[in-house]
Amino acid sequence: MESGAHMYNKDRDVISKEDSISLGKRIAKEQNCSESEDWLQCLRGLDAKVFNKYTILLTYPVLGTEFLPISAQKAFAENKFNSDVNIMAGIASTEGSMLAQDYVKNMLTLNNFIESTKTSDSVYHGLDVKRVDDYYLQNVHKNSSLELKKAFYELFGDLMMKCPTYLFAKQVATNAQPGHSQTNRKRRVATIIDWKYN
């Protein structure tokens, strides 16, 4: 398992099945497909290039489907996962610098940083924005765009990749069958503050 696990807020997924259907219906309406039973078939008949304008950089799986019926948290809580599977999880300590580039302005300001954290909360749900900002902005020169970028890259990497990967691997190790769990701890690569992961 490399760099990422679908394990964010335990109380609300990034995108629900209802959110996904609502988005599909909105696109159907904009493309003059009726909202009757045939709206999905109508969308399937459109040229794929039509959907380019609806593309977002980050996509997430939708829970409550045949492919992913329950969340990872629920699977661990109810012991509904393959506990005899060995996994090796890893992350890069600088994940955020690559992932956040499209979301950070060239000249980042303190206000941009705070707005970006609020935007992250609108996606991941349940962040204590003030607490997160306070943590990642400690010891950062607030007028230095470079330092603000580095701080946001760290936040983004922790939020998107490092913390979910670590927490998923920890749950597997905690709940795995005997003999299927080993850990090899290295230096700190992520900061896990009390967001709604566990």
Describe this entry's structure for a reader:
The protein is mainly alpha-helical and 198 residues long. The protein is 43% helix and 0% strand. The protein contains seven helices and no strands. It has helices at 17-30, 39-44, 72-77, 95-99, 110-124, 129-137, 145-175. The longest helix has 31 residues, at 145-175. The protein has a domain at 1-12 and 82-198.
Please describe the structure with a list of short key phrases separated by commas or semicolons.
glycoprotein, flat, AChE-related_enzymes, disordered C terminus, 198 residues, AB_hydrolase_fold, mainly alpha, CarbesteraseB, 7 helices, serine esterase
Number of strands: 0
Count helical runs. Answer: 7
Strand content: under 5%
Distance between the termini: 20 Å
Helix content: 40-55%
Tell me, briefly, the overall form: flat
What's the average pLDDT? 83
Protein name: Carboxylesterase type B domain-containing protein
InterPro entries: AB_hydrolase_fold (IPR029058), AChE-related_enzymes (IPR050654), CarbesteraseB (IPR002018)
Domain Carboxylesterase type B: 20-177
Keywords: Glycoprotein, Hydrolase, Serine esterase
